[in-house]
Amino acid sequence: MKFHHKTKRNAPSIIIVSLIDVLMVVLIFLVVSTTFKKRLPAISLSLPTARNAGNTVISSSQPLVVSIRARAPHLRLNNKSITINELVGIFQTRKVRNPSVTLTIQADKDAPFGEVVGVRDVARSAGITSIHAQVRIPADR
Pick from 22, 47, 76, 92: CA 20 to 30 A from residue 86's CA? Predict the structure, then answer.
């Protein structure tokens, strides 16, 4: 039987460049995957411009935003199509839950004005007094 004499071996070296490459790939993956976490609904609205629009900050836990499009179905509440009759119940329920509820109307500049007046009328009948219209502020203001 032949025994080998143990020789002292060097510790394995870690190639740091490969570790940095792997770390960068993981970091890029995390950044890309977290940017798509919350997708914002997109409605194509062309808001009218107003030179004398005030700066209003809405401090509500859940904003009540009604969008009025130029094409049917005109009314959308939180990116869901809705009718004017359904808005009556929703406005009344929201007013009971939060007496200081604020309504923001985003109306396309080509939207039927009757729809805007109808939404305002339904909100007033439900007791909502804080109604705002969202507009586009011109760049040269």
Answer: 47
When comparing pLDDT for 61 and 126, which is higher?
126
Q: Under the phi-then-psi rule, with left for phi > 0, alpha for psi from -120 to 50, and beta for the rest, what region is 59?
A: beta
- Is the predicted pLDDT of residue 71 greater than 60, yes or no? yes
Q: Which domains are seen in the chain, by residue range?
A: 41-141 (3.30.420.270)
127: left (phi over 0), alpha (psi -120 to 50) or beta: left
Spatial separation of the C-alpha atoms in residues 55 and 31, rounded to whole Å: 33
Query: If you average pLDDT over every residue of the chain, what do you get?
Result: 79
**16-35: buried (b, 16+ CB within 10 Å) or exposed (e) per residue?**
eeeeeeeeeeeeeeeeeeee
Q: Show the tokens assigned to 8.
A: 């002292």
Whether the CB-CB separation of 69 and 106 falls below 8 Å is answered with no
3-class SS of residue 95? helix
Mean local confidence (pLDDT), 2-31: 83
Higher pLDDT pick, 89 / 2: 89
Whether the ω angle into residue 99 lies within 30 degrees of 0, i.e. cis, is no
